[in-house]
Amino acid sequence: MKHRKSVLIGSGIFLLLTFFFGCGERSGEKEYNKGMASWKNGDLVRAQGQLEKAIRKLSGKEKRSEANNQLGIILWNLGKHDQAAEKFGESCRLSDELSGANLNLGIALFHADQLEQAEFEFTKILNDQPSNSTARSFLGIIQMQRKNWASASKEITASLRTTPNNPARQNALALAELHLNGGSTAAIKRLEQIVIAYPDYAPALYNLALIQDQWLHNSSAALRRYKQYLAKAGTDALQSTVAEQAIVRLGGKTDPARPTTSAQHNPDKASRLIAAGSKLHAAKKYNAAVKQYEQALRADPTQKTAHYNMGLSYYALKDYSQAAQACLDALKIDPSFTDARYMLSLSYSQQGQWSYAEREAKTLKETDPTRGKSMLKYISGAQKR
Fold it and tell me: Which is nearest to 190 in space by CA: 181, 138, 45?
């Protein structure tokens, strides 16, 4: 049986960034430590400037390599992806030992659709670290994009041996096996297991809906899954418009209490307003920045970055309750948004809401072990102070 349409890969390939911490007070290291402190406090713009200054002063290659890697992560979080890739590349050129920078460079190249270069970086990592599950899973996703389903299944299966409790990788494996085997039974079973084990992971519901719709032509089952996806992910989620259109096509009705995605969204205007807000934030005009982000969301409510940046500005204003709400709004759009999850946990911590902070940190640990563990350690120490 031939299938004309391919099941879309759900949103769930996570950006796992490695962190390094320095010590000492030699030339440049004071600025480096200031930058790390600013980053910890959520002031990414200040952290960027301090790390740039540190790099100019640092003398050792290893230390400059670490600082470039850190700066690349901050630039990525600020949405400056091309600049981030340059810093990751510089970090790699300065040191062959800093595998975290190689991983970050590979991820940046992958998101820039430079698949061959990304594959080279991930393969190089695996030559030294065969158990690196993140590099292995990205190789699998690259093979999926090339429709090399056998290799994709092999790589993602290998990554799950190290991190079996990763819903995004299990989701990717289900889709690879669907195309590899040409049958839907095993894929449906795996996706249903994800839905049970990870009830907040909406992409599995979306892929179940697509399989029922496009492969099995089971309209009633597809309709049910599309509705479940919208109920879980919200109308601002990545595939909400497709799901709403499918519900209408299949003869169902969208929830009248939930507005459908507007065709009048203006993402270009929203991007300009977000950029203006970032400049105001950099100038420490945090209230003005918030207003820009609010305008950006009126232009396009699907902009998760606007919610997240607003959270950063509220955090800088020490309005931790509003910061938490902004991060929650970002996570409603993209539950896999690890930066927002991190800031949500940090905002709860600042309010002394330790159970909430710990809950979010544990959720973060499932997809970003480094930052999740770091946040749990921070929460434990903060409670003792």
Answer: 181
Report domain extents, the chain.
19-129, 272-384
Q: Can you say how many angstroms the Cα of residue 153 is from the centroid of all Cα atoms in its chain?
A: 22
Maximum Cα–Cα distance across the chain: 69
Instruction: Identify the pLDDT of residue 27.
Output: 62
For the domain made up of 19-129, the CATH class stated in words is mainly alpha
> CA separation (Å) from 168 to 125, 207, 275?
21, 12, 30
C-alpha–C-alpha distance, residues 40 and 48, integer Å: 12
Cβ-contact 28, 57 below 8 angstroms? yes
Nearest one of 280, 281, 274, 240 to 260, comparing CA atoms: 240
Residue 315: its pLDDT value, please? Answer: 92
Predicted TM-score of the model (pTM): 0.57
Q: Residues 211, 187: contact at Cβ < 8 Å?
A: yes
Length of the chain: 385
CB atoms within 10 A of CB 244: 20
Q: Which residues contact 336 (CB under 8 A, 6 or more apart)?
A: 11, 12, 14, 168, 367
Phi, psi of 196 (to 5 degrees): -70, -45
**8 Å CB contact between 161 and 361:** no
Question: Model confidence over 231-269: pLDDT tens digits?
Answer: 888 765 667 788 888 888 888 665 444 444 444 578 888
- For 272-384, which CATH superfamily applies? Tetratricopeptide repeat domain (1.25.40.10)
pLDDT of residue 98: 55
How many Å apart are CA 179 and CA 236, to the nearest integer? 29
pLDDT less than 50: residues of the chain: 1-25, 255-263
Between CA 7 and CA 223 the distance in angstroms is: 16
Neighbouring residues of 104: CB distance < 8 A, sequence distance ≥ 6: 17, 18, 69, 72, 73, 76, 84, 88, 91
